[in-house]
Fold:
Amino acid sequence: MNKKAHLINVQPIRTKEQLHYMPIMLRKVNTSK
Structure:
């Protein structure tokens, strides 16, 4: 959780990449469960 917030703060320019990767990570979490 902290790492995600840190990456978002460090790379505020890559908002599109974040929007693209965040749902993928959420899917991975859902499939892990």
Observations:
- The mean pLDDT is 66.
- Residues 7 and 30 are 22 Å apart (CA to CA).
- The radius of gyration is 10 Å.
- The chain has two helices and no strands.
